[in-house]
Records
---
Amino acid sequence: MHNAHAQAAGMGGMRAAGDLVARLQMTRGMRLAEAKDYVAGKLGVTPFDLSDPVAMTDVRNELGFGRIHSYAISQPWQANMIEAKVNIARVLDVPINCVERFRERTAPVATGGR
Amino acid sequence: MADGTFVRLTRGEIEADLVAGSEAAVKRAKVPPLSDDEIGHLLDIYASPARFTGVDVGDEVVLSCDGTGMKTHGTRLQDLQSYEQWMGADLLELCVGDYSLKVVRTILAYEAQYMHDALLATVAPLQYGVMPNLGLYSKPDGPCDNWNELLPLGRIAEARASQEEAVEMAVVDMVHLADSQYEAGADAIDWDTTGASGDPEFLAALRATAIIRGKYPDLGVQLGMAGEFVLGMHGELEWDGVRLAGLWPREQLLLAQKAGATMFGPVVNVNTGKSCAWNIARAIAIVKPCMAVATIPVHMNAGMGVGAVPMFVHPPADAVCRAAKACVDILRLDGL
């Protein structure tokens, strides 16, 4: 069922920019058009590009947003997982809860680490 | 059909079912009927012999994928990574198989630790999902007298008092869950199938959401419903001066966004004895009034047995994709 929905109507998650738009909806309560405009503006692309896996794979690579794992394109120097979310928070200019926690927990104890 | 079985219908029969589904929504939910253009568009979708269809390029929406991390085919983390990497999920959800709030309340620390670890190894936004399932707060599963046993005996006041007691407990548990998940770093909380136990359960979700919004301004709260209509199991409960029993999706949405939810999931249940065409027209007509008043994303539920997706554990792909396209095209949804 998920696959049918994804193929019929989904933005493609990390294949494109579905995860980025979802993040604005989920934590900022932005409706779809507003969220697409916001993300597209921050990335310097059009809202149409956000569902295009070809365009977004390049953008994600340049910005260190993490990409679908593939032996063809994945390299160990690329940001992924929590590293990618640090970059996403910075570029989209939205705080990401786990990134904030990661910074707290990896800070020197004297400045608030725990 | 909405039970998943194939049936052969003429174009005229499909059109008749679409009109009848719209009229059923008008009669039951007191909503406007679908227009001739909307019926015509749905007819093109549902009369097509194509095995698969989809929205126009550029019209894609966000999919709020619940139940993506529940040990379907690996560990829960592996499930989350599979959905993210292989299925292209727009967002992820960590949960336990039982999915009930009262079950999760006993393992909050374990769930928070798992969320903490999962967040280090995923990119897509990750929410924690539970269903409030207020029924588990009643005996023999919980501490409150069982209102479903009291009501048939005519002990209305006792049943209502027991439901109110359960609401208080559930609100505390929902806020504690949010506390622990926020501390772990979660992006959002998902109250799924809200209102399955009627108006007291919807009240608990609204009250908890308002408290969480005040405590954690950046934490997402997705509020998804269990049914199209809030059952009046209590009948007199109100939130913000609005009686909850009998509310349809538009009024449910207004309360959810006022409480501070960041996403709302309306539900329209299927009638398994009717065709998918009948069900999609009815579902869209009932949800359509939401779209004009929504200030938060509306992710219509389109899973097994809701939103004209057949009541079958692996619904036929052609029925799923027709429902997805129909809902997005007509309603201009924010997600599914």
---
Amino acid sequence: MQALREEIPPSAAAGPAIVELRGVSKVYDGRVEALRAVDLAFPEGALTTLLGPSGCGKTTLLKIIAGLLEPSAGEVFVQGARVTGPGAERAFVFQDFALLPWATVLRNVAFGLELRGTARAAREETARHYIAQVGLSGFEDSYPHELSGGMRQRVGLARALAVDAHVLLMDEPFSAVDEQTRRKFQEDLLRLRELEKKTFIFVTHSIEEAVYVSDRIVLLSRRPGRVSQVVVPEIARDAAPDEIRRDPHYLDTVEEIWRGLRQYVE
Amino acid sequence: MKQTAGQPAGRTAPPPAPAAPAGGDRVLWWRLASVALFCGAWEVAGQIPINYAFPPFSHTLAAFFAMVADGSMGRAYLSTLQPLLLGVAISALLGVGLGVVMGLRRDVEWLAAPVFIVLQAAPVAALIPLITFIYGIGLTAKVLAVCIMALPVVVLNSYKAVRNVNPSLVAMCRSFQGTRLQVVLKVVVPDASPVIFAGLRLGVAAGFIGVVLAELLITPTGIGDLITYHRAVADYAEMYATIASIILFSALTLGLLQRLEVAVFRPERKAAA
């Protein structure tokens, strides 16, 4: 999180897109229209947040990018290839962690590699590396029910990192943990970004969280979800976390986004 | 008479111990105390006696050891275990297999679910004369009796277990490119296993009912023969010993099954205990 970062990743349109959505729509059961003709490009190496009121289809959008849901219309491209299902270049972090309760932390983190048929020794070595990376060393043999909510999500994050995907899709990853853990998590996420150089697509309903962690924020309108605005917070991230949270620019951006979203809430 | 004997004895049976929680020593003492209390009450009731056909606990225990010593108990169990094990094995394999497939596939569910729901609701003991009519009085009829008792509960539990698997875990497995087979073997079955095993335990219990019913209703063999014979010649202590032994045996089997489940599928429970 410190001064490692000289250049803030290129804003908005700059940088080649690694994920592209073209006219993506989603209608559930022929009745509920969740998304309508969404066109979006996600620049490589950036952390882009999908932000919007609950029920705006942001999680649906993320699951479509993940290949877990099929769009009713439109196409998704990742690294130029059309998405037809889950792929090795994408990894998902779940809101409810989705850890196997009968498996140890080690096996949970290695699970993506286990599914790919990686040999046991190799996948456990990788898993140990990422367990250390997210600060869970010493908990390799614990079971999920022995961990706190925040620690469980670290396991979920380590599992996603372990498969070495280019794009990390995070579905409200911090919404099920308490506020203190959440802040620590946000700071850790920024540090991990430095280390891993991946593209992150992040779904949240917290404006502060979005402004704090994102290079780009995509505001979605209320159902049916459409892109209503793209905000690029120009925040100097080489400052200390506390300073950023007090930075007038940070506060202004939060306010600006709130004004944009307010109409959907009332 | 069988009824009155079965009920109190059913309560003695050590409850199929759920993996003893921390402080298990104290729990164990309470359980032993409860067993001792029951046996004591039985002894007193038998000594009064509340009924000339109700033997005290000590006589029953003595009769039990005498029957073990003269080999009649062993022979009876050997003969009863045959249809029981066959029937339970068939019900377990077929039931879990069918239940899992029903949980995974709608078409199989529509095809098979109504049959088992009706079977579960029906008093299947009424079918036993019918089985005798078709399959005679041999082993087949007894195995079938065990199966019709055990199969529905095993199938329906497995099916509901699979239906209620955490969808988030399935999505997780798919998102990491798990194949359909991997999703089933690495997520669906382990996640469903507690409910599947609950069904198996109920199925084994129902299987015990099935085999005793068959031995009492079709032809007296094994345990059924011992009960019928000792009742006929008014050896009530022997009769009670037989009944109590089959109840204990059934309870112990169920307890072991639970241990097996925890050991094989749920290591985290073992760690927690």
